[in-house]
Amino acid sequence: MYKLTTEQQHLQLKARDLARSAFAHSAAATDVTEDYPWANVDRLLSEGFMGMTIPTEYGGQGRSYHDTVIVIEEMAKACATMGRITVEANMGAIGAIMSYGTDEQKKIAASAVLGGDKPAICISEPNAGSAASEMTTRADRKGDHYILNGEKYWITGGGVSKLHLIFARVFDDGVDQGIGAFICLRDGNVPDGLVIGRRLYAMGVRGIPETHIEFRDLELHKSMLVVPPGGLKRGFASLMSAYNAQRVGAGTVALGIAQGAFEEAVAYAKDREQFGRPIAEFQGLQWMISDMSMQIEAARLLLHAAACSGESFPDIAMAARAKIFAAETANKVTNDSLQIYGSSGYGRHNAMERHVRDARMFTIAGGTAQILRTQVASSVLGMKLPQTRNGYMAR
Ligand SMILES: CC(C)(COP(=O)(O)OP(=O)(O)OC[C@H]1O[C@@H](n2cnc3c(N)ncnc32)[C@H](O)[C@@H]1OP(=O)(O)O)[C@@H](O)C(=O)NCCC(=O)NCCSC(=O)CCS(=O)O
Ligand SMILES: Cc1cc2nc3c(=O)[nH]c(=O)nc-3n(C[C@H](O)[C@H](O)[C@H](O)COP(=O)(O)OP(=O)(O)OC[C@H]3O[C@@H](n4cnc5c(N)ncnc54)[C@H](O)[C@@H]3O)c2cc1C
């Protein structure tokens, strides 16, 4: 059982106040316009919810991932887009750079995020989604620079993010060194070679653009290559280890969406009358409400435990379990909440259909529920579980 400290309870209340007063009322408009909510991001920044995990020596608050999930749930409950922005402003790319980067890299990243930027993490490719380690984006050394070529897809924040962390296979003298991550800033002037491609219009969480990004002879100084302590040969494993934090964050957005939909459904059940009495008096709905409350509470416990696990970053299996459970809970709870609303939930004049759409992405993005189950199985069985045919044959 987790218990929030007094300080964490204050943080939760501060986040809840901001989310309710500033973000909840614009969530529907953000969904309809599909515009990035710049004004809300300014508020998120000025209230101290961006770059919370950045160490104090780089201008941040040095907060834990546990503190961060407390804030994310509140933001996502009010507006899923703001929930996801809070994740990327505190986890993912910024977490990896603040842990593995050089002093110069940390200063660049901290300055971007503490200036209001939500970084973009560029891993997935059209032919390497689940099979992320099969990425073909390559960086070839040329003197003091690397030349990047390749294509990423479903990059959250494409066209609005300033800081990009680009995963690529690194070649020195044509020899594969392993996978590293490059920092590329899109700061007013778009660097030659960084091409923001077409937008992928999404089913939910529509306030953040998802785009293709191409690298066409993108030239980056060698000092922009983030090399984790284990070197490039262990680069992919170390970078994915940092990414476990973002999985916990994404799961928490799913939780916040579920909690928000649930609260609305409970209030509606007490208010709506059929057969001369509130529909909350019908056992068929009472048992649905019980199940929803259990699933939400269990998801929250798994997420908080995962956020507190590991050393620098959450443990791979705990993060995977928590994200799978929270994502599947969000799909179930938002659908059941809509059911409790009946036709009113199905109408677009109501928030329920948006909650269902917003919840849908989390069994896909950040590692699908199937891939993450394989990671959990690998941990439980103590077995490597290569997914390629020749991986098994080699064993
Ligand atoms: C990891 C996979 C790509 C599977 O690929 P492979 O079979 O080639 O790799 P593995 O042998 O499983 O892994 C190689 C190496 O890395 C270690 N590893 C892998 N993942 C992690 C992790 N999460 N934490 C720690 N370590 C990790 C692994 O143990 C191996 O180490 P050893 O060599 O054994 O010591 C695939 O499973 C995978 O994760 N696919 C999903 C890709 C993904 O999550 N993409 C996210 C893109 S960003 C995004 O979607 C943002 C959306 S959001 O909502 O935030
Ligand atoms: C809204 C959204 C935001 C995203 N944001 C980002 C981002 O910011 N940065 C980024 O890099 N990526 C991002 N992604 C991409 C995301 O990481 C990928 O969608 C995800 O990793 C799955 O890859 P894929 O979509 O190519 O599906 P595929 O890998 O093609 O999978 C298709 C289906 O096959 C299943 N499958 C594949 N391999 C296996 C296996 N070995 N065992 C069992 N089932 C398997 C999958 O589970 C899935 O059901 C985002 C995606 C979405 C939807």
UniProtKB/TrEMBL annotation:
Transmembrane segments: none annotated. The keyword Flavoprotein applies. Residues 120-217 form the Acyl-CoA oxidase/dehydrogenase middle domain. Catalyzes the conversion 3-sulfinopropanoyl-CoA (3SP-CoA) to propanoyl-CoA by abstraction of sulfite. Does not show dehydrogenase activity. One of its GO terms (molecular function) is hydrolase activity. It catalyses: 3-sulfinopropanoyl-CoA + H2O = propanoyl-CoA + sulfite + H(+). Keywords: FAD, Flavoprotein, Hydrolase. Residues 234-380 form the Acyl-CoA dehydrogenase/oxidase C-terminal domain. Its cofactor is FAD. Belongs to the acyl-CoA dehydrogenase family. This is 3-sulfinopropanoyl-CoA desulfinase. Its EC number is 3.13.1.4. The keyword Flavoprotein applies. Residues 5-107 form the Acyl-CoA dehydrogenase/oxidase N-terminal domain. It comes from Trinickia terrae. InterPro entries: AcdA, Acyl-CoA_Oxase/DH_mid-dom, Acyl-CoA_Oxase/DH_mid-dom_sf, AcylCo_DH-like_C, AcylCo_DH/oxidase_C, AcylCoA_DH/ox_N, AcylCoA_DH/ox_N_sf, AcylCoA_DH/oxidase_NM_dom_sf. Homotrimer or homotetramer.
